[in-house]
Structure formats: structure tokens, C-alpha cells
From TrEMBL, chains A, B:
Family membership noted in the UniProt record: Belongs to the AHA1 family.
Name the UniProt record assigns to this protein: Uncharacterized conserved protein YndB, AHSA1/START domain
InterPro entries: ASHA1/2-like_C, START-like_dom_sf
Top-level taxon in the UniProt lineage: Bacteria
Ranges annotated as spanning the membrane: none
Residues making up the signal peptide according to the UniProt record: none
Coiled coil, from the record: none
SUPFAM superfamilies: Bet v1-like (SSF55961)
Activator of Hsp90 ATPase homologue 1/2-like C-terminal domain mapped to chain residues: 16-150
């Protein structure tokens, strides 16, 4: 994948947990609820149909407000790569104004799992908005929450 | 799949050719070139990587003008369902202004293959534009070209 600095945001971290456990966390609702949004925000509901084109619908609670985000999985390579987006709803219904496509990549590394998050956007403006909204802090916090939670499953 | 009359266009036809041959035509460049655009327009080049997220890039020639259309496959169920779109380029790079997502469905029926084409759009405006551009005539002509060509392969 060749990144485009105008429209893509990406970072990598080493997480001290095995790849298979990280995968499990990212693909099962009961685990997703434990790390998917920076605390004290939380996930009210999470509906996952883990197949290409299957739904990945979440409702997060931000300071008492419910925020729905409906999407689908685009690509599923167990223990390696998960791609999802809000550009479609289940049944390949295109969203009017999608925000991003997220690519989670996992690889073995000394000390655990090399965890790479990439967010791809339709425009430089959307990318900048996501960056200004706190992409690196937010997804970084989520990565550390994921690591801590994954360690409880080992 | 629940269709939305505001944003989706769809029709079904029976094609007098086996499902497996129709599938072969839709997934191999040398066959796609034979039916994919209404004649006398033609396909100058066709680059297919038949996997989820793989490229489906075509260049068509319309009255001497080359028109590129780069996209990807979203879902591949051999002999049954092919979904592709211009909403992404290879590597899940979102397109700035995608036009549509196409769903080709094949089923056995008396006399051959029940062939269903659905085009889903992001907005009612895009759907209307596609309809006014001649969706039913154009894709209907393509279906008959496909049928004739498929019969030469039996």
C-alpha cells in the first residue's frame, strides 16, 4: 500500500500481546466494547457480522450523547488485516458522505505485535479534519487500551 | 438486499447461456472486452486482479476518446455474485467523487441464467443522472452482447 500524505494518516506501535489475541479483540463485540473508544467515552452497542460486506455498526456514548456509526468490513485476513469503512452500509449501500476507511494491520515483532493503523480519506480536507480532531492521540489511546485489555485475555 | 428506489437502479433478464460461462465472461479481461460496453464503443484495455480489493481498471473508447475508469472488486462469489465500484482504487484508496457500486447476480433459471444488474448510488441525484444517461438501455444492450458472446464459448 502506497500512502498518500495528503489524504492518509498512519502510525505503528508495538503492542505487548500476541497477534491472535489482538485479532480476537478487534473482531468480537464483547471485546471491542472494552477498548474501541477513548475512555471515559464508551460503546453502547456494537453489531458485527464478520464477513466481507458484513455490518460493523457501533453506537458510542460521548458525554451522554449517543453517536451511531454504521459501516461494513471490506477485507478480512485473520490475524493480519482488517479493513472497514463507513462508506457503505450492509448490502453495499453507498453512504452519501463517508468519512474514512480504516486499515488495521498486525505483524509479529520482538515483544509482541506490530500494530499499524491507517485511515484513508476521500480528500485532503477530510484528512486534515480527522488529524485536527485528534487522530493520533485518539487512536493512540485506543491502541494502549487495546494492549491493556488484550493482556487480561492471555 | 433491500433496494432503495431513490438511489438504486436494477433489472433482471434471462440469458440463454450457463451461469459458469457468464461468470467467466465477467471476470476475465479477454472476455470482458467483447461485451462490456455497447458497440460501437469498445474497451481499449482492461486490467483485472480478481480478489477482494483487487483492481478492476478499464479504458473505454467512445467515438475516439479514451475514458479511464479505475475501481476495485468488493465481493466475489464465484458463479453467483460480483460486486465492484469506482469508490476505491487498489489498496482501498477512497475516490474523491465515486459514481456507483455495481452488483451482478447470477442464478439458474429455465432457459439459462437469471441475470440481475443493480447499480447503487450515493444520492438520488447520482441515481437520476445514471438513469438519464441511459442505464437501462446501456446495461440492457451489454446484457445481450454478453449473451451472444457467451454462446460462442459454449
Amino acid at each position: 500500500m502506497i500512502l498518500d500524505p495528503e489524504t492518509d494518516l498512519s502510525f505503528s506501535l508495538t503492542l505487548n500481546a500476541p497477534r491472535a489475541v489482538i485479532w480476537q479483540c478487534w473482531t468480537q463485540p464483547q471485546h471491542l466494547k472494552e477498548f474501541f473508544v477513548p475512555k471515559p467515552h464508551f460503546i453502547e452497542s456494537c453489531d458485527v457480522d464478520l464477513r466481507v460486506g458484513g455490518r460493523f455498526n457501533t453506537v458510542m456514548n460521548v458525554e451522554g450523547n449517543s453517536m451511531s456509526n454504521d459501516g461494513v468490513f471490506l477485507e478480512i485476513v485473520p490475524d493480519e488485516k482488517l479493513v472497514f469503512t463507513d462508506a457503505y452500509q450492509e448490502g453495499w449501500k453507498p453512504a452519501a458522505d463517508p468519512f474514512m476507511t480504516a486499515i488495521i494491520e498486525l505483524a509479529d515483532t520482538d515483544g509482541g505485535t506490530l500494530y499499524t493503523v491507517t485511515a484513508r480519506h476521500r480528500s485532503a480536507e477530510a484528512c486534515k479534519a480527522h488529524k485536527d480532531m485528534g487522530f493520533f492521540d485518539g487512536w493512540g489511546t485506543v491502541a494502549r487500551q487495546l494492549e491493556s485489555y488484550a493482556q487480561t485475555l492471555i
